[in-house]
Amino acid sequence: MTTATRGLDEQTRTIIKATVPVLKEHGEKITKRFYQLMFENHPELKNVFNQTNQREGKQPRALANTVYAAAAHIDNLEAILPKVVSIAHKHKSLNIKPEQYPIVGKHLLLAIKDVLGDAATEEIIQAWEKAYGVIAEVFISVEKEMYEETKNRTGGWVDFRDFKVTKKVVESDVITSFYLEPADDNPFPSYEPGQYITVKAEIEGEPYTHMRQYSLSCAPGEGYYRISVKREDATSEHPAGIVSTFLHEKVQEGSILPISAPAGEFVLDQKDTRPLVLLSGGVGLTPMMSMLESVIEEQPDRKVIYIHAANSGNVHAMKDRVKEITEAHKNVINYTIYASPQENDQYDKKGHIDAEWLSTVLPGPDAAYYFCGPKGFMRAAYLMLKDYGVAETDIHFEIFGPSEDIIN
């Protein structure tokens, strides 16, 4: 990527770096305006972008953080390679195309001009136009490699492919699993534990398709993909989840769902033989279950500690499967925390995970830690693990949104 930035003259790079403080101050306002302008001129892109994340401000904030990081490291874009790769995985899962990048660039520049007004001089706009071209080429190049790798795998595909729901299993009061197999009966690729797929929901009465990413919740090589979806019911602050409600109420065994090939970099390192600690909250158990089921098959002697937090037993999915695994594998230990346990619930701790309790069950800082769950849970887990002395390189997490919400 340094080679790409060499195409930018020194004056352009100087201007870009000078705009960093302004972007930091006005970044979200610019990106919100960007999405407004882009959807007005290209409403078909509402088929691609998650409109719920738009309303809640997650997507504008994520884009603002990416733009800010790129501007701050314009002399050395290798510094943001991890962020590029993470976003590229999501782009691949959504089947973002190279021809969509100029549309994004055009409206980003319009938004910068619109929000900053006279402060966005012609010189600044021209500098950003050049810089965006370089940054876009980086993403297009990384994504091209990913698409080719996916397509060249046995059974691999690009874009969306129809899968049939072969089984629908209610896992708890709010979580249901869907077992998916190719509708064309042709081979399909395996995946790494922790990866996700994108479901394209075509819902009657909705003007646009809705795409949602769901972690695969079983070990690879089972002969199917499995996603376990939490039904997002309406609250005083948010409407019911459009896609989760559709899946729970409308999709049945025999239904067809278009999905993308597995993607994602939040994957279990199966070369690591140190103790493995899995922490999940709520529906965050889905990638953890894939990792747990994988490790007992591929590394049957590896020590595993699985800690799950839920509100109570009636919303705790797959607890019987976890119990079955711990009873069959003496190297696997399971702990359950319920915030509001019900009568007859079996659990190890009431309330929430805290540092004092956690320190009594963890194997020590020198282990591999993976976690997933609601944002508050993940932020607490991250801070507790850092305080516990776990190295940054041993802390792995999945968040479908800005990682800055967790680590800052």
From TrEMBL:
<feature type="region of interest" description="Reductase">
    <location>
        <begin position="155"/>
        <end position="408"/>
    </location>
</feature>
<dbReference type="InterPro" id="IPR000971">
    <property type="entry name" value="Globin"/>
</dbReference>
<feature type="site" description="Involved in heme-bound ligand stabilization and O-O bond activation">
    <location>
        <position position="35"/>
    </location>
</feature>
<keyword id="KW-0521">NADP</keyword>
<dbReference type="InterPro" id="IPR017938">
    <property type="entry name" value="Riboflavin_synthase-like_b-brl"/>
</dbReference>
<feature type="binding site" description="proximal binding residue">
    <location>
        <position position="91"/>
    </location>
    <ligand>
        <name>heme b</name>
    </ligand>
</feature>
<dbReference type="InterPro" id="IPR009050">
    <property type="entry name" value="Globin-like_sf"/>
</dbReference>
<keyword id="KW-0520">NAD</keyword>
<keyword id="KW-0561">Oxygen transport</keyword>
<feature type="domain" description="FAD-binding FR-type">
    <location>
        <begin position="158"/>
        <end position="269"/>
    </location>
</feature>
<feature type="binding site">
    <location>
        <begin position="212"/>
        <end position="215"/>
    </location>
    <ligand>
        <name>FAD</name>
    </ligand>
</feature>
<feature type="domain" description="Globin">
    <location>
        <begin position="7"/>
        <end position="144"/>
    </location>
</feature>
<comment type="similarity">
    <text>Belongs to the globin family. Two-domain flavohemoproteins subfamily.</text>
</comment>
<dbReference type="InterPro" id="IPR012292">
    <property type="entry name" value="Globin/Proto"/>
</dbReference>
<dbReference type="InterPro" id="IPR001433">
    <property type="entry name" value="OxRdtase_FAD/NAD-bd"/>
</dbReference>
<keyword id="KW-0560">Oxidoreductase</keyword>
<keyword id="KW-0285">Flavoprotein</keyword>
<dbReference type="InterPro" id="IPR001709">
    <property type="entry name" value="Flavoprot_Pyr_Nucl_cyt_Rdtase"/>
</dbReference>
<dbReference type="InterPro" id="IPR017927">
    <property type="entry name" value="FAD-bd_FR_type"/>
</dbReference>
<feature type="active site" description="Charge relay system">
    <location>
        <position position="143"/>
    </location>
</feature>
<keyword id="KW-0479">Metal-binding</keyword>
<keyword id="KW-0408">Iron</keyword>
<protein>
    <recommendedName>
        <fullName>Flavohemoprotein</fullName>
        <ecNumber>1.14.12.17</ecNumber>
    </recommendedName>
</protein>
<dbReference type="Pfam" id="PF00042">
    <property type="entry name" value="Globin"/>
</dbReference>
<dbReference type="InterPro" id="IPR008333">
    <property type="entry name" value="Cbr1-like_FAD-bd_dom"/>
</dbReference>
<keyword id="KW-0216">Detoxification</keyword>
<dbReference type="Pfam" id="PF00175">
    <property type="entry name" value="NAD_binding_1"/>
</dbReference>
<keyword id="KW-0274">FAD</keyword>
<feature type="binding site">
    <location>
        <begin position="282"/>
        <end position="287"/>
    </location>
    <ligand>
        <name>NADP(+)</name>
    </ligand>
</feature>
<keyword id="KW-0349">Heme</keyword>
<feature type="binding site">
    <location>
        <position position="196"/>
    </location>
    <ligand>
        <name>FAD</name>
    </ligand>
</feature>
<dbReference type="GO" id="GO:0008941">
    <property type="term" value="F:nitric oxide dioxygenase NAD(P)H activity"/>
</dbReference>
<dbReference type="Pfam" id="PF00970">
    <property type="entry name" value="FAD_binding_6"/>
</dbReference>
<comment type="function">
    <text>Is involved in NO detoxification in an aerobic process, termed nitric oxide dioxygenase (NOD) reaction that utilizes O(2) and NAD(P)H to convert NO to nitrate, which protects the bacterium from various noxious nitrogen compounds. Therefore, plays a central role in the inducible response to nitrosative stress.</text>
</comment>
<feature type="site" description="Influences the redox potential of the prosthetic heme and FAD groups">
    <location>
        <position position="398"/>
    </location>
</feature>
<feature type="site" description="Influences the redox potential of the prosthetic heme and FAD groups">
    <location>
        <position position="90"/>
    </location>
</feature>
<comment type="similarity">
    <text>In the C-terminal section; belongs to the flavoprotein pyridine nucleotide cytochrome reductase family.</text>
</comment>
<dbReference type="InterPro" id="IPR039261">
    <property type="entry name" value="FNR_nucleotide-bd"/>
</dbReference>
<keyword id="KW-0813">Transport</keyword>
<feature type="active site" description="Charge relay system">
    <location>
        <position position="101"/>
    </location>
</feature>
<dbReference type="InterPro" id="IPR023950">
    <property type="entry name" value="Hmp"/>
</dbReference>
